[in-house]
Amino acid sequence: MNIQPGFDLAALLNGGLLAMGNIDAVPACKYGKASLEKLGVWDSVKDKIAQAESVRAALLLVSRGKAALGIVYQTDVAADLRVKIVGTFPDSSHPAIIYPIALTKQSTNADAQAFLNYLRSARRPFERQGFTVPVQGQQS
Questions:
Q1: For 20-29, how does the pLDDT look when each residue is reduced to its tens digit (9 = 90+)?
Q2: 58 in Cβ contact with 24 (< 8 Å)
Q3: Taking CA atoms, which of 9, 72, 111, 134 is between 20 and 30 Å from 84?
Q4: Strands of 49-52's sheet in order across
Q5: pLDDT range class, residue 138, cuts 50, 70, 90
Q6: Are 30 and 97 in contact (CB under 8 A)?
Q7: Which residues contact 58 (CB under 8 A, 6 or more apart)?
């Protein structure tokens, strides 16, 4: 699926539903809605949304055939072999998705620094799951 401005998502649903987490609460769905709005297709599908409590619940709707398509994180799709990625939103269609980590100035827990060091050294497991890990101090 070529996701670009004006693509016909309503036709791709073929009368089915588009699974998403709660568009007012679930971050992935806020990004998804922002992308659909920027691409000019939100109005054509807003009445065809099957909102779920989470991204994983939205993925389950697609996996069980209750929704034709879903908007979920690519990394979550790896958890369900019955679902395949049919398209991805252009990076320019939504805010960057970043999960920052830092120690607070008030932290006195030595384990907190050790945990931060561990996460910084554990790039490969994150990358194997589909995450992009920026270099320390770099934002993507």
A1: 999 888 888 8
A2: no
A3: 134
A4: 49-52, 18-21, 69-70
A5: low
A6: no
A7: 19, 20, 21, 29, 50, 51, 52, 67, 70, 71, 72
